[in-house]
Amino acid sequence: MNECVFCCCCCWCRLLRVLELVESVIDVENDEEVDWVSCFPSEGQTHLESLAFDCVECPVNFEALERLVARSPNLKKLRLNRSVSMVQLHRLMLRAPQLTHLGTGSFCANENVDQEPDYASAFAACRSLVCLSGFREIWPDYLPAIFPVCANLTSLNFSYADVNAEQLKSVICHCHKLQILWVGVCVVNCDVPI
Predict the structure, then answer these.
(1) Is 157 exposed, middle or buried (CB count within 10 Å of its CB: 0-12, 13-18, 19+)?
(2) Which pTM value belongs to this model?
(3) Looking at residue 155, what is its pLDDT?
(4) Of 25, 67, 107, 194, which is most buried by a Cβ count within 10 Å?
């Protein structure tokens, strides 16, 4: 999709409720930051209920995304791409505790920070979260951060996550309502019962 066309959609569709980029390609040169998020109207609350751009490979303007999420009180579904860091995910979750579906994007530290945010508290604040996905890159040390929401999860997608059977077991033992579980082939280990 041409970036100009996409930006026009964001700018002129003021009543947009759902924007989900599915297998979309936004034409940019040199993996530059794409500023389509800034094209949303900048004043007042939005009508967005679902925003998914996990398939977009290039970085997005995070400050504009954070402002958009903060102005979207009806946002229930947010699926991020891998350019969104853990620290940024934390900031977005604090601005959108009403989320029911979250695609984490990257789930590893890719920034130098003086003090790690309390990721578990951010997840705990999202009491309505029932679907968790993403985990494009994952640091197993961060897995305990999702434990506070596991009890309410009905869907967990680890299909992109590089986790072993023990790590998977440490998560799903907290998921009492789980109905849908997606895992990659790499977690299979017949010696560890799940």
Answers:
(1) middle
(2) 0.86
(3) 98
(4) 107
* Residues 129, 50: Cα–Cα separation, whole Å: 14
Q: Could you tell me which of 99, 58, 112, 109 has the C-alpha nearest to residue 81?
A: 58
* Contact between residue 38 and residue 12 where contact means Cβ atoms under 8 Å apart: no
Span 144-156, pLDDT tens digits: 999 999 999 999 9
- Partner residues linked to 158 by β-bridges: 183
Residues 6+ apart with CB under 8 A from 190: none
pLDDT at position 161 is 87
Strands of the sheet with 131-133, listed across from one edge: 18-20, 50-52, 77-79, 101-103, 131-133, 155-158, 180-183
pLDDT value of position 190:
47
The CA angle 77-130-185, to the nearest 5 degrees, is: 95
